[in-house]
Amino acid sequence: MKRGLETIKREHGRKKLSGGKTIGGTSRLSVHNILRLQMTFASTIRKFKHDLDLLFNGSWAIFWHKYSTNDDPRHDYCSIDWCGYLKSVRDKTPYEH
User: Fold this and answer.
1) 3-class secondary structure for the chain?
2) How many angstroms separate the CA atoms of 80 and 76, rounded?
3) What are the tens digits of pLDDT across the range 34-68?
4) Residue ranges of the domains in the chain?
5) Burial class for 33, CB neighbours closer than 10 Å (0-12, 13-18, 19+)
6) Which residues in 36-56 are b (16+ Cβ under 10 Å) and which e?
7) Torsion of CA 5, 7, 9, 14, to 10 degrees
8) How far, in Å, CA of 30 to CA of 42, rounded?
9) pLDDT digits (tens, 9 = 90+) for 3-20
10) Side-chain half-sphere exposure of 16, counting CA atoms within 13 A
11) CA distances to 32, 34, 39, 76, 85 from 96, in Å
């Protein structure tokens, strides 16, 4: 996974996206975010290796949680144990993506 994301970043790193920014950088596909995604997916695989349904839901939770925005929150697969958005909804506090 890490190598694939680094390849995408290397091949498309200088191209401007629709928002006028490149794929890398702060809050985008930075080295830090690539490592964080890799560690999160590895942890999910270890945690749910004996239950395919939980592994499926956990993997989608990571993807949708990471790419949620204030305009389009996507936390259907998230767990309230770790999702700040779901905790803020429960506690009726503001949350910023």
Assistant:
1) CHHHHHHHHHHHCCCCCCCCCCCCCCCCCCHHHHHHHHHHHHHHHHHCCCCHHHHHHHHHHHHHHHCCCCCCCCCCCCCCCCCHHHHHHHHCCCCCC
2) 10
3) 898 899 999 999 999 999 999 999 999 998 998 88
4) 1-47, 51-97
5) middle
6) ebeebbeebeeebeeeeeeee
7) -170
8) 18
9) 888 888 888 877 887 778
10) 4
11) 20, 21, 23, 17, 8
In terms of pTM, does the model score above 0.85?
Answer: no
d(CA 40, CA 82): 12
